[in-house]
Amino acid sequence: MELAINNESTSAGSSGSLNLLEFPSSPAIEEYQSEIITESTQTYIEEGQVYQDKQTVAAAMKNYSVMHKFQFRVKRSSHRSYWLICVAESCKWHFKATSINDSAMLKIRSFSRQHTCCLMDETFIQRKRTAAVLGSMVVPKYCDPKTVYTPKDIQTDMLSEHGLNLSYMQAWRAKEKALQFLRGNPCDSYNKLPKYFYILEKNYPGSVVKLKKAADDCFLYAFVALCTSINGWQHCRPVVVVDGTFLKSAYRGIMLTASTMDAAGTIFPLAYAVVDSENDASWKWFFEQFKEAYGERPSMCVVSDRHESILKATSVVYPGLAHYSCMWHIWTNIRSKFKKGHLQLHELYFATARSYTMDEFNERMLKIEEVDLRVKSYLYDIGYHRWSRVHATVNRTFTMTSNIAESLNAVTKDARELPIFDLFEYMRTLLERWTKEKLSKAKGTFTYLGHKYNKELEDNSTLSQKLRVRASTDHIHTVLDGVKRYIVCLENKKCSCGQFQLDELPCAHALAALRHRNETYENYCSPYYTRKSLLLTYEMPVNPLPDEGKWEVPQHILDEVVKPPAGDKRQPGRPHKERYKTFDEIKSKKYKVSCGNCGGEGHNKRTCKNAPKKK
Q1: I need a surface site. Which of 22, 75, 200, 502 has the fewest CB within 10 A?
Q2: Largest distance between two CA atoms of the chain
Q3: For residues 349 and 335, what is the distance between their CA atoms, to the nearest angstrom?
Q4: Model pLDDT for residues 266-315, shown as the tens digit of each residue
Q5: Minimal CA–CA distance to 275: which of 381, 95, 380, 423?
Q6: CA 247 – CA 567 distance, rounded (Å)
Q7: At how many degrees (to 10) do helices 327-338 and 343-353 cross?
Q8: What DSSP designation does 305 have?
Q9: pTM of whole model > 0.85?
Q10: What is residue 110's three-state secondary structure?
């Protein structure tokens, strides 16, 4: 840039104009634009190479010395030059790089790679391998959080590739350094949240992104619901499955998630948040943000693991909203509370929960009572409407468990070790990838219904082939299945078996009646199961974010301070990977043999001594 002053008048006090003229950069610099080396892991070094700055040259030479097992010392170092020589005074090995036209770039002017000293000497074999150098060499191994690359793997690879014999502690420190290079300091990760959330709101208009801090600027809660999920929610059944899972990062915490099922029967994430713990305040805040993003729809309900704080929060934020319990969670409590885990009770409980009619439910509850009266009393105290399909006040169709939330927790298992900034970005990229994949599958679906529900319909169609139909009116039919008789009303979409109205999908009896009328099934399926709904769910893509270095963020956002949580930091040492189990879970074995005859444990039905003797 050159400052030029042009005066139109020579008289005193005359006004002048200042023109800023742009001149091209130096030709000497432009000559190297395509050859500038930016990676410190350069394996081949020669004269004439150009590096982007001095730090890159220094790091590259450290890697080079480790790979070739020799030591050097710095003879001269400044912002304009970097001069290295061998530690042996008589050795002629040297390296010299200087700047190009006073720029930050350095060019290798002289490099004598031949050593005249004895490299096999013990002094040179014991090259000091710093954790920073070794860590920079293994950084690419940790780009994907799901990659398992242990210190033992580092030891093996370094020995086979570079001939370096590392101790386990050296390999462990190298891994920690590599993670620090890649993810930064966990403490600094919290300070990135304001600008990250600003970019999310800017790139995804309509998203609900919230960050809550304590009075001392310490992190408290963070919530994200992208506009793509908010748009797709309108085309999914309003059944929300919520759950919380622990984080394994330096400052720990809990990640809360809300998800539902799409028209293909797969997971559709709605919102995710990071809080301090699962308590009344955190769940209440989470549902307040969820209500702001998604509002409240008719026939909406929540399915969870019966955490007390979830029950309290939904009753405050969503008064009158139906709340159901996961069948598996109740079964786990039965096993822990009554020490009843044999196969007979297991099958009875799940069959009872999935009953389509009151007669089926009452019949199976009588059988549970015969096995153990305490189990029946426990299920009654919970409330039949909490876990039984036929007693539900709002139809939740196939969502009887919180398995989709547990599956989402399993997908994010490795990502929960990341710092909070990287965790939120991992969740965004996960949504980006899933949206693209599921949209492609939806476009490749040529059936009227999504995959899961089309398979259910095909199974019902196979069963309907052997049924006989007798028409009573245009819409009411009697369907005979052997000695059993079922009444189907096509006008009201009901069947006396209960499956037609509760699954909102034609049962075998309804399909037999439709075949008798020469009518197709399309008008008798829930719109939430169709291919059209599936395409609408994923019609809005999750576009990628630009590189962090290119984010344009206002200064007041950059100046915002977010400190790490005030709670206890994770203690040093090997981190705990699994959740802390209850006393009953630790005390009891994972798998126990139980008798299907008497219900006792430690033996099976074949070796049961309580069975009546055969005459």
Answers
A1: 22
A2: 133
A3: 12
A4: 999 999 999 988 899 999 999 999 999 999 999 999 999 878 899 899 99
A5: 423
A6: 14
A7: 150
A8: -
A9: no
A10: strand
